[in-house]
Amino acid sequence: MASKILIIGACGQIGSELTFALRNIYGSENVIASDISYGNLDIVNSGIFEIVDAVNYASLKTCIEKFNIDTVYLMAALLSAKGEKFPMRAWDLNMTSLFNVLNLARDKFIKKVFWPSSIAVFGPTTPVDYTPQYTIMEPSTVYGITKQVGERWCEYYNNKYGVDVRSLRYPGIISWKTMPGGGTTDYAVEIYHKAITNGHYECFLKEDTELPMMYMDDAVKATVDIMQVKPEDVKIRSSYNLAAISFAPKEIAKSIKKHIPEFEISYKPDYRQEIASSWPKNINDSYARQDWKWKHAFSLEDITDEMLFQLRKKFAGVLNKSN
Ligand code: AKB
Question: Catalytic site residue 215?
Fold first, then answer.
């Protein structure tokens, strides 16, 4: 019998693209998209879609039983910037949803779990250059704390109950289909939108704030890859460091200027600067490269080419009308 997959948080930035990718691989009828509301009509109208509240154990269990789900991708979360505004909401959503899914796996309702962690597990005392897999981790954001604690619980459920849970520490993810929401790395998506729509971007980080980043296609590939490898090849059950490229706002602006010479960037750092300054500049992901042969494909120049091309197409109608 084909594996049945549930994606929780399917309307979000990563969830939406992961849903399409998994449907291509495993067939639409085997991939059930879910979210707390009808937040993304492309997803809602593209296959089976269920309203699921991931903090409500009963709602989740009903959906899992209804569709005979064996694999869950838990993509719902409150990210770093929004988490600082709503600390208890972030704690509740990020932790309760994880416990609900881990407990369903422990109790054998499902077999396999993907749960995203983040570079936010690191903090101001972590070495910033080529941050190793095993290092000081003292996150200073609520989001980072939930991801750090979540990693410990994933490893615990694997050790103690044999739960097949797999996880990646995502860097900032750049994509054009669905906007990210509430993250500190969101600037690296907004900047392309503003470059196309009004030629100017006011950046909420300082020009030289270097952060680890990745194109969506690479992030989706890493997620699919780690879920496809044999359990014995997943040697880290907390979460794998995962890296592609790193850049600062002034470098992404320079790469956009090669295509749009009149593009201007200005800087007005806000509370998100402190979050960004607490994170690594770049990441050493040698365990992922070694254990399950992870390899990224997109450079900053590739990302800029692709983002500008896709966004120009997406906004073509709107831009033509306003000209
Ligand atoms: C955020 O900025 O909060 C996220 C992340 C790095 O996990 N994109």
Answer: no
